[in-house]
Design a protein that fits this description.
Blueprint: H1 3-21, E1 23-24, E2 32-33, H2 35-63, H3 76-80, H4 84-101, H5 107-133, H6 137-144, H7 149-170
Helix pairs in contact: 1-2, 2-4, 2-7, 4-5, 5-6, 5-7
């Protein structure tokens, strides 16, 4: 393995931990934070392999009890709680963005790949929320998806713009 991709993946895991703490309190169970920005960037800048690894490292750190999840939470119970599916969805999102970003190198393609990654994160997270809280789909969508769409659209636009900027610094495989 090469030192540079491993180091960069570790940096993106740390970035996800930091961005998870930049949160806006909401009355819903799912917090609004910037973590998805780092997930999108990891996939777009590092590619599928290393972007996914960065999010697996983030989850492993949290599962071991380090307070890297939103609200300085950590431990397996956070992954098994109502919002755990969204955390696990970060891995699918980074993988999806990484796979699609290698084919769509223009900004619109990055936006599309990030939207697809977010859709998978929403699907997994909402399904797990429904299972863990015995909530019907309309309630889960009202609590966990609909209020977050405008902010997530802004995060996608910001992440696509940043990915193009970071591409020059980090020399990724794609973009």
């Amino acid at each position: 393995m090469h030192t540079r991709p491993l180091t960069t993946a570790a940096l993106f895991a740390a970035l996800t931990a930091v961005f998870s703490q930049i949160a806006i309190p909401t009355p819903w169970m799912v917090p609004v934070n910037l973590a998805t920005c780092s997930v999108f960037l990891a996939g777009a800048v590092l590619g599928a392999r290393w972007g996914t690894l960065s999010q697996l490292v983030y989850l492993a750190l949290g599962a071991c009890g380090l307070p890297v999840f939103s609200g300085f939470r950590g431990g397996v119970q956070a992954l098994l709680g109502p919002t755990g599916g969204y955390l696990i969805g970060y891995v699918l999102a980074a993988l999806t963005v990484g796979l699609l970003a290698q084919h769509f190198r223009f900004r619109g393609g990055l936006i599309l790949s990030m939207a697809c990654g977010l859709l998978l994160c929403y699907a997994l997270g909402t399904a797990w929320f429904m299972f863990s809280t015995a909530s019907p789909l309309p309630r889960a969508l009202t609590l966990c998806v609909l209020p977050f769409l405008p902010g997530d659209a802004c995060k996608i636009l910001l992440s696509a713009w940043l990915a193009k900027r970071l591409a020059h610094l980090l020399k990724p495989q794609y973009i």
